[in-house]
Amino acid sequence: MASLNDPRYGFCRDCMAAQRAEGRRCHVCGSPRLLRHPELCRLSIAHVDCDAFYAAVEKRDNPELRDKPVIIGGGKRGVVSTACYVARIHGVKSAMPMFKALEACPNAVVIPPDMEKYVRVGREIRQMMRDLTPMVEPLSIDEAFLDLAGTERLHHDPPARVMAKFSNRVEREIGLSVSVGLSYCKFLAKIASDFDKPRGFSIIGEAEAKDFLADKPVTMIWGVGKAFAATLEKDGIRMIGQLQTMELGPLMAAYGTMGQRLFRLSRGLDTRRVEPNGESKSVSAETTFNEDIGTRDELVAILRSLSEKVSRRLKAADIAGRTVVLKLKTRDFKLRTRNRQLADPTQLADRIFRTGCSLLEKEIDGTRFRLIGIGVSDLSDDGRADPKDLVDVQATKRAVAEGAIDKLRGKFGNNAVETGYTFGKIRTPPKASPEELE
Questions:
Q1: Is there a single domain that holds both residue 288 and residue 377?
Q2: What is the pLDDT of residues 376-393, one digit of tens each?
Q3: Where in or outside the cell (predicted)?
Q4: Which of 99, 267, 268, 276 pairs as cysteine with 209 (C-beta 3.0–4.6 A)?
Q5: The domain containing residue 19 runs over which residues?
Q6: Within 13 A of 306's CA, how many CA atoms are on the CB side?
Q7: Catalytic choice (137, 143, 286, 436)
Q8: Residue 273 lies in a domain
Q9: Same domain as 199, residue 149
Q10: How many domains is the chain built from?
Q11: Annotated binding residue 49
Q12: Active site residue 143
């Protein structure tokens, strides 16, 4: 009989039974979801990605949507935040303009994003990850890296089985599915998690890495986007295998520090460690208008509402940001980004809003905008955030008032109290695009 961890025969992802021999189905429960790999018991870097997360949460909460195409987004001029797999069959993709998504799938059910709910569910899954290992590096609300090296004695199982049990637990307790990639490095673990969605579990071992990468496009390398891929193509490089034949010196001479990345990742060399403190780089909120807006009063009202959303997220996560970033997109899709660094980190809506207003004033020149966003970066914990202002006494008073408003909203809901900036002034509530933890 095969041992529990025999990589030749593997185990069943559904009933977790060790397999006694080669076969296409589990000899215990008959499931075809078998996991085998020569390095099954030696790999410890995992990447977890929730399947069509926002849409999956909505389908979980409303069973009537289960077999329908669902798009999470807002307004005909907004973009798709995510789409369920039924909608994806029709060609709907994330970041696609909403009007194009509805042309591709006119029968889709469109749901505005409910980020507070998604964050809540994401945290439940995150805690399940931390039950496995403290080495969890979140990349977004619905994906993260895990390093399970050294946890076998704790769990009495190798990482592969631990992650299979984890994915089953998420389905059972949360009602959502995840896909898992397992490898010896972050680069390949993330690639693996995309292979067999939804409910996937793929493995890329160290021995096979170079051959596996050889026939893949250069765009599979982390950091190679469309623009850089076009540059490589002009130089006759389209496949990763071509990079594997090139030496480090010529690559760095041609592409600078990016050449070093091409050299290493094309050979499956990635020494980046899972960083448990790298949870987020910025917190932001934005909205796309149904009609272009150019007046100060309307833009300021929406900016205030978005600043409050960002503030709520910062306070809930016990973090603060030192750099305020304003984002505007003109009617001809040109993007304007402006930022200002503060003396101290903040999580106050008042400081975020007033800084954003100062940046916005310089952009109000008759231009009409289709999108506005506000956010903060340079994140840290909230220990040194918003010290009392001994010079501007009014700022301290506003901070106290904001704390009182937060308590009322916490008790009666976010719409319980409105400021004069927003009351009766927002033509369309800013809900087209979700806040983001990036």
A1: yes
A2: 988 877 777 887 765 566
A3: Cytoplasm
A4: 268
A5: 1-36
A6: 37
A7: 143
A8: no
A9: yes
A10: 4
A11: yes
A12: yes
Q: Check whether residue 64 and residue 191 sit in a common domain.
A: yes
* Residue 67, marked binder: no
Answer for the pair 63, 183: CB distance below 8 angstroms, yes or no: no
245 and 383 together in one domain: no
Cβ proximity of 347 and 321 under 8 Å: yes
Split at pLDDT 50, 70, 90, the class of 432 is very low
As a whole number of angstroms, the distance between CA 201 and CA 193 comes to 7
The angle that helices 115-130 and 53-61 make with each other, rounded to 10 degrees, is 100
Compute how many other C-beta atoms are within 10 angstroms of the C-beta atom of residue 413: 9
My answer on whether 174 and 215 are in the same domain is no
Q: Does residue 173 fall inside a structural domain?
A: yes
CB under 8 Å to 284, separation ≥6 — which residues? 310, 325, 327, 373, 374, 375, 376, 435, 436, 438
User: Are both 418 and 333 inside the same structural domain?
Assistant: yes
182 and 286 assigned to the same domain: no
b/e sequence 42-63, b meaning 16+ C-beta within 10 Å:
ebbbbbbbbbbbbbbbbbeeee
pTM over 0.70: no
CB count, 10 Å around CB of 31? Answer: 13
Read off φ and ψ for residue 433, nearest 5 degrees. -125, 140
β-strand pairing of 45-50 with 178-183: antiparallel
